[in-house]
UniProtKB/TrEMBL annotation:
Organism: Pigmentiphaga kullae
GO BP annotation list: transmembrane transport
Protein name: TRAP-type C4-dicarboxylate transport system substrate-binding protein
Signal sequence annotation: 1-25
Transferase as UniProt keyword: no
CDD domains xref list: PBP2_TRAP_DctP1
Matches recorded under Pfam families: DctP (PF03480)
Keywords of this entry: Signal
Presence of the UniProt keyword Signal in the record: yes
């Protein structure tokens, strides 16, 4: 096995299952891993939910949290779920496009997950995840976390000509459409790249830059934000199908409870915005018409890229995940 910690955990679970008495016969334990660091806000939020899940699920269903990137590289987590190396993962679509290219389309959603569960979007997502990824899309744990452009050179219009911007696949095409020279580096190298002038800026959600100390080397944040950082729970499809009706009912109950907490992310975004201002990061705001064009351009480029990758899925998702008109986007 490539991941000794996971192999050891699986062996321990197997031993526990063999030694379980009749009272434990209906309890199952699912292996959960995170593509995000344990000390980050996403996993902190997740672990509080896991604790509650296990306290209330005794005798029915339990979660065994195996860890984050120290246990498995983030870009291998999607395949680990697909192949059943782990049962569930906290992940983002941008991290498993190698397994399921359509996973990155979810960043383009501009309606809340509660509405997605009502309008058929969730069923459409799972049709693709089941058929192409051998996965079940369980819940969207993070919402209302827009991406922003952070730069060290002031601009007065959405034009990045001559600027070197660190990117991930999430916003590569958008920043290229703004004439940026894009550079891909691991997050751990961004601080030094900013310090040495290797890059003039980067894309990142509203939260999280303090975890990496990037605020020390960041002068401006461009508003408005665009897209929505999608962090969700995905599950191996065969493992999902093996759950008994009581286990499945319990899992679904807890997943809905998790999504019901998503108002937390609105407050977190407000707190991080204020924290950035206090740290000396200035806000660049365009006039209203320019701001609308900037934001709409992000979505137009995003959906056009999605259509090139998977035309039918992109068209279906756009009809379910987008507001009727750009002006009504939050």
């Amino acid at each position: 096995m490539k991941f000794p910690l996971i192999k050891a955990a699986a062996a321990l679970l197997a031993c526990a299952a063999m030694s379980a008495g009749p009272a434990q016969a209906q309890q199952a334990t699912l292996r959960l891993i995170s593509a995000f660091p344990e000390n980050g806000i996403y996993v902190q939020h997740l672990q509080a939910w896991v604790k509650k899940f296990n306290e209330e699920g005794k005798g029915v269903l339990q979660l065994n949290f195996l860890g984050g990137p120290k246990t498995m590289p983030p870009f291998e987590v999607g395949n680990a779920v697909k192949t059943g190396v782990v049962d569930i993962a906290l992940n983002t679509g941008a991290f498993y496009t190698n397994v399921l290219p359509e996973s990155d389309f979810l960043k383009l959603s501009d309606i809340p997950v509660a509405e997605q569960r009502k309008n058929g979007a969730f069923e459409a997502i799972n049709k693709v995840w089941n058929e192409k990824g051998n996965m079940q899309y369980l819940a969207r744990m993070v919402e209302h976390q827009p991406f922003h452009l952070y730069i060290n050179k002031k601009i007065d219009k959405p034009d990045l000509t001559g600027m070197k911007i660190r990117i991930t696949p999430v916003y590569r095409e958008f920043f290229q459409a703004l004439n940026a020279n894009v550079i891909t580096t691991p997050p751990g190298e961004v601080y030094t790249a900013l310090e040495r002038g290797v890059v003039d800026g980067y894309g990142w959600p509203i939260g999280g830059i303090f975890d990496l100390n990037w605020q020390e080397k960041t002068k401006f944040r461009v508003d408005p934000g665009f897209y929505d950082a999608e962090v969700s729970l995905i599950m191996n499809l065969p493992a999902y199908k093996k759950l008994t009706p009581p286990q499945l009912a319990y899992l679904n109950k807890q997943l809905l409870a998790l999504e019901a907490q998503n108002g937390f992310w609105d407050r977190y975004a407000e707190e991080e915005t204020a924290r950035q201002a206090k740290a000396g990061i200035q806000t660049i705001k365009f006039d209203d018409a320019t701001a609308r064009r900037y934001r709409d351009m992000a979505y137009d480029v995003g959906w056009a890229t999605a259509a090139k990758q998977s035309p039918e899925v992109a068209a279906r998702f756009k009809s379910l995940l987008s507001r009727p008109a750009a002006g009504s986007r939050p």
